[in-house]
Amino acid sequence: MILFLKLLMAHLLGDFIFQSKKWVKDKEQKKIKSSKLYIHIGIHTILLLFLLQFNVKYWNVILIVILSHFLIDLGKIYLQKKKNKRLFFFVDQALHISFLGLATYIFQPFDTTFSAILSERNLLLVCCIIFVTFTSSIIINTLISKWNPEKNNKEKEQSLANAGKYIGFLERLLVFVFIAINQWAGVGFLLATKSIFRFGDLTASKDRKLTEYVLIGTLLSFGLAILTGLVYSHYGR
To answer: Is 231 exposed, middle or buried (0-12, 13-18, 19+ CB in 10 A)?
Structure first.
């Protein structure tokens, strides 16, 4: 585990601390001819050597990480477009971390089985996460769809696309996590924070129907997340 953490630290420092936006733009424009690409790889190499204490026994680990990092970055700058740039960012990071795990496994093989990954606790956790995000969103929309006073509301037209959906996802995930780790105070803090930002504007707008609509949705959202958190806390131990 310590080896993987050292590799991960080198990656985080190299990609997010010692790489500026100007370097990223230079790589995207000049691609394989960009000097910043090779400087970036050089910084990763130095970080790896330093964190691994210049120990020659890790030469194969460093080679795998550096070579994979170069090829992944090269593939990204040639394949990504403006429309899929956000997607390629996450794909790029997932591939980097996967190769860090592979390099660690090659040097220090660790035992893992498919049955261990699909343990009862892990399956329950995944089911709970799916429920508090996508499933709960559909349940709430179905229950309150007969009202929907936001349909002709000007504020809705000015809001970001699907912002409410993703806010609900994050809200319920946070509530679920707070319940799962037995930190109920966090739920109160989250509810108070939402009240400050949301219900103040609704009260000022003097739109009672919209206020009641949002209140019902919020209570349903928090209620489903709390219920899911309690289920996981009880059965996921």
So the answer is: middle
Q: What are the structural domain ranges in the chain?
A: 2-107, 115-235
Residues with pLDDT less than 50, the chain: none
Complete DSSP assignment for 182-220: T-HHHHHHHHHHHIIIIIHHHHHHT-HHHHHHHHHHHHH
Does the predicted model carry a pTM greater than 0.85?
Answer: no
Q: How far apart are CA 49 and CA 203, in angstroms?
A: 59
Q: Distance of CA 50 to CAs 7, 23, 53, 61, 183, Å?
A: 11, 23, 5, 13, 39
Structure-block tokens of residue 219: 């209570």
| Digit-coded pLDDT (tens) for 14-72 | 999 999 999 999 999 999 999 999 999 999 999 999 999 999 999 999 999 999 999 99
- Cβ(79)–Cβ(88) under 8 Å? yes
